[in-house]
Amino acid sequence: MERRKLEAEEIGKWLAERPAWGVQHGKLFRRFEFPDFSSSLDFVNKAGKIADAADHHPDIRLGWGYAEFEITTHDRGGITPLDFDLAAKIDAIT
């Protein structure tokens, strides 16, 4: 998977196809809502397995009824195609 840092225009095109995702502080960001804590935890555990398999690990905040994901490629200093790929795989869980 390509690891080059993307330009704002490229990021904007991808976000137009996935409006649930946004950019915060230079990272892809999405908040998922759930009916309870155990559903949130189950989702995060599934996403964690996907991230481990990809060897690309998001920052995750977990709470009652929600999970928030921030994805970036740290060694490239921004968003790369690798981040989009992981975000799409996380979306596929739902």
Tell me about this structure.
It is a single chain. By secondary structure, the protein is of the alpha+beta class. The protein has one domain: Transcriptional coactivator/pterin dehydratase (Gyrase A, domain 2, 2-Layer Sandwich). The chain has 3 helices and 4 strands. The chain has a 4-stranded antiparallel beta sheet with strand order 1-2-4-3, covered by helices on one side. A hairpin with a 2-residue loop joins strand 1 and strand 2 (27-33). The longest helix is centred in the middle third of the chain and has 18 residues, at 37-54. The chain is globular and about 35 Å long. The model has no long low-confidence stretch (mean pLDDT 95).
Annotated CATH homologous superfamily? Transcriptional coactivator/pterin dehydratase
Given this structure, which CATH class is correct?
Answer: Alpha Beta
Distance between the termini: 23 Å
Instruction: Give start-end ranges of low-pLDDT stretches.
Output: none
**Global structural class:** alpha+beta
CATH architecture: 2-Layer Sandwich
Secondary-structure element order, N to C: HEEHEEH
Global geometry: globular
Number of helices: 3
Oligomer: single chain
CATH level-3 fold name? Gyrase A, domain 2
SS strand fraction: 15-25%
Q: Helical residue percent?
A: 40-55%
Mean pLDDT: 95
CA radius of gyration: 13 Å
Count of domains: 1
Largest pleated sheet = 4 strands, antiparallel
